[in-house]
Amino acid sequence: GTEFKNPTTEKSSMNFLISLTSEKWQARLAEAYKSYYGKDWENTGEFDNISYEWIYNFLMNCTFVSKDSTIAADVANGAAGSAGLFVFSKLRSVDATNMTVVANDGIEGFAGLMYPIYSMVAANAKYPYTACLYINYLLSPEGYGNIFGSQMGTYSVNTSIGISDNAKSYGDQPLSFWQDCLVFEDAEQVQNVYFEASDKITQWCAAKQ
């Protein structure tokens, strides 16, 4: 089955599920549902929308694992039916010789999640210009290469920086490829419905255990 980090203890997992409740992803899930079942999704009243039904069923059927590295190792072992949602770069430390799945194989709906990492200069920084120099270095090909090297699953906002050959060997693609098939963390949606959505998700996780 699919392995996943428990959203009650992993913020990125919780934000991923909450981001799925946006109108955009409700529509995408409805399209995938109709494509798979050949009929429109019907709201029976049990769930507020199709996203919550998907989240509930996913949580009831996934296996909670505490570490991304554990999920990567399990997926890389190549057991039949193995799948996982984990930090892509963790594959760098496992033997993927027997892996039988790929990061994205024509999946309708979505193939995973993505969240941003920011470099910021604090208002009270002692050396703000030094911090700016670091950020400038981070956005350069040299700086990005030295910091992230050949990792897969990391992408620079500097679009002139491509992904490494090592990343490509694991099925990684440029950021432009992932933009239409990954759920990007939706900060506005998370902020707007966090308490309601996280409460539902927390209750479902507790019921699962």
TrEMBL record:
Annotated SUPFAM superfamilies: Periplasmic binding protein-like II
Organism per entry: uncultured bacterium Contigcl_23
Protein name (database record): Putative ABC transporter periplasmic solute-binding protein
Domain of life: Bacteria
